Amino acid sequence: MEWFTDIFTQQTFxxxxxxxxxxxxxxxxxxxxxxxxxxxxxxxxxxxxxIAGHLGLAINPDxxxxxxxxxxxxxIYSLGVQVGPGFFSSFKKGGVRLNLLALSVLLTxxxxxxxxxxxxxxxxxxxxxxxxxxxxxxxxLGAAQQAHLQIxxxxxxxxxxxxxxCAVGYPLGIIGVIMCVAILxxxxxxxxxxxxxxxxxxxxxTEFQVSxxxxxxxxxxxxxxxxxxxxxxxxxxxxxKVIIPTSDTMVEKGEHALVxxxxxxxxxxxxxxxxxxxxxxxxxxxxxxxxDSQLVSRHILVTKPELNGVKLGSLRxxxxxxxxxxxxxxxxxxLLASPSLRLQLGDRLTIVGExxxxxxxxxxxGNEAKQLSNPNLFxxxxxxxxxxxxxxxxxxxxxxxxxxxxxxxxxxxIVGLLMGAFGPRLHLSTYTTRSANLMLRQLGLTIYLAGLxxxxxxxxxxxxxxxxxxxxxxxSFALAVVPVLLVGIIASxxxxxxxxxxxxxxxxxxxxxxxLNYANSTAESDEPAxxxxxxYPVSIFLRVISAQIIILLLG
Length: 555
Hints:
With 555 residues, the chain is of the alpha+beta class. It has helices spanning 2-9, 13-31, 43-54, 61-87, 94-120, 124-134, 138-151, 156-188, 220-224, 266-273, 317-321, 355-365, 369-372, 377-391, 407-422, 434-457, 460-464, 467-493, 499-509, 513-522, 527-554, and strands at 204-210, 218-219, 231-238, 241-243, 250-251, 256-261, 274-276, 296-301, 324-330, 333-336, 348-353.
């Protein structure tokens, strides 16, 4: 049985892979166990690594560094690509206020950490590690470690101590935010009614009767010139028949039009057409194909790479084929099919028209689901390479003796964000299925957490069960609770932010999905999840960059 023991103890390539995979497997299994309805998920891989390191398991340091850093890069680039499309749009409308509030949480916690460092003499590396744990943000820790090693090459002990501080702060960050949500719930004392998740549908269907004399006899093209609001006329009841209108279709008195728009624009559109019918066309159980025997409604997928980034209006599908595109579903979100909308691979278009015409449009757009099942591995690896190159660019800052680099975390997340947001406009196919992207992110994060825990585990308990360790516990709890509670109370009492949006924003600012699950159970609406998604991309990006800047400037 000596050969079996050697698998775990002799530092070979096989031993390194076996130990890391074992840590991942045990951590994931433990993370699936629910306690009081709450499971810690992949987080427990981190603590499984700590236990393994404490028990004496170790692998070749160079091999561990390669696997851990590759996991970090894979996770953070995939995350950037995923949140990229919503990153810049999150600043629009109500998202501006929520992101500013999330920024206030970030600034408050960061200033607290720096003040404690300056006044109490706690080393900066310890404080950044504690802050990373308190905000449950391991990519922030990875960025800080890379910045530290950039300044002090070879100081692996300093990086490991930062990881130990993060491990202390992590559970307190989870508990602290959940406690803050409970306190804010008690202060609000009320619930909101459950509403449809607005993040999943940006369209609304309304029926109007044409009764405004100002548009009698005008074409749809002429009517659209009267407003800056965007809407799509899906069907028109004309002379007892249902037709698919084109831009040259003339609208007459008494005709009925089915209009798709943003819900907030319905009143404005009613003023154009004249009268809104009291019919609910937004119910899920409507049989659209029964409205007219000649017209059908079908879903068509965009799968041709050459259409990636092309404006919908430039294809002239409506006039050429007598069909109407009523909405575009992208990653589960319904978008208005406006002519200026740029198509992306994987978009699902809802098309109304005659069956043969829709078949012809399907051949133009591709509509081959199997094409989307193959992940675009070239763009994944090319994007990572580009991210690492960007992360290695030296940036000179006046007053600093050395150049600043974005590093392994900063470079890939910036490139990932830009790829996700602007790749289609440059006709770069960054599409991967949601399941494939989730697989890459989870795989990278799990490997990173396993390596991070293993490297920090050897001296973890010896450090925690000391006076310094108890101080870490208290500081972590304060860093998790004070910023969240302070900003949360101001948002609810001064800015009158709803409870649901408030707690969702706070959970997103702390990158805490476990607390979000608890927040969702305390609200009778989907608003916490919407607010979380609104601030999460900006928050995680700023956390990663701020950690690097602090270490490079003050470390």
